[in-house]
Specification:
With about 160 residues, the protein is an alpha/beta fold. It has one domain: 3-Layer(aba) Sandwich (Rossmann fold). It has six helices and five strands, in the order E-H-E-H-E-H-E-H-E-H-H. Strands 3-2-1-4-5 form a five-stranded parallel beta sheet, sandwiched between helices. Helix 4 (about 95-110) links the parallel strand 4 (about 85-90) and strand 5. Bound molecules: adenosine-5'-diphosphate (ADP).
């Protein structure tokens, strides 16, 4: 079976992430969305909240598995019997960081490839950070995230509004 791992912080999952997951299913038989704890990024949502939202958004995609991992990504990829890391590429600004990570992962494990997918252009500017800013100011979120994610963002950030 052709298995790919899509790692990220998913704080929270946006339509941009979902677009990449849907595209990856055209290439892979099984996609593991691997939610990283990433405490150094000080996520707004806990790991279990992020996992729950990814599960909710992908519930109609039976080939998608939602999991978490710790430690080296390439070790997790090998352990899960996968052979590729899936990453999304938005604007040019993503390129340098993604380039460094892909080549580092290749150095660590030469058998694991990184596959880059581009989202639909309407999502190519979307970042979880920008969405959190919109939510903080009470802006509409429906074009960016699943309605349940919008609800949770609103609840979480309501108290921070001026
Ligand atoms: P990380 O902390 O690993 O960057 P993110 O959740 O921010 O985690 O992103 C996970 C992956 O999804 C990254 O490859 C990122 O470039 C990609 N991604 C995030 N938002 C979008 C989007 N709007 N369109 C395409 N790819 C995206």
């Amino acid at each position: 079976m052709n298995v790919g791992v899509y790692p990220g912080t998913f704080d929270p999952i946006t339509h941009g992430h979902t677009d990449i997951i849907a595209r990856s299913l055209r290439i892979f038989d099984h996609v593991i969305v691997a939610v990283a704890p990433n405490p150094s990024k000080h996520p707004l949502f806990s790991l279990s909240e992020r996992l729950e939202m990814v599960r909710l958004v992908t519930q109609d995609m039976p080939q998608v598995e939602v999991a978490t991992f710790e430690g080296l990504l390439v070790e997790y990829v090998k352990r899960r019997g996968a052979h590729a890391v899936i990453r999304g590429l938005r604007a040019i600004s993503d390129f340098e960081h993604e380039f460094q990570m892909a080549l580092t992962n290749r150095k660590l494990e030469n058998t694991v490839e990184t596959v880059f997918l581009m989202p639909s252009e309407e999502y190519s500017y979307l970042t979880s950070t920008i969405i959190k800013d919109v939510a903080k100011h009470g802006g509409p979120l429906t074009d960016f995230v699943h309605p349940e994610v919008a609800k949770r963002l609103d609840q979480r950030l309501r108290s921070l509004r001026p």
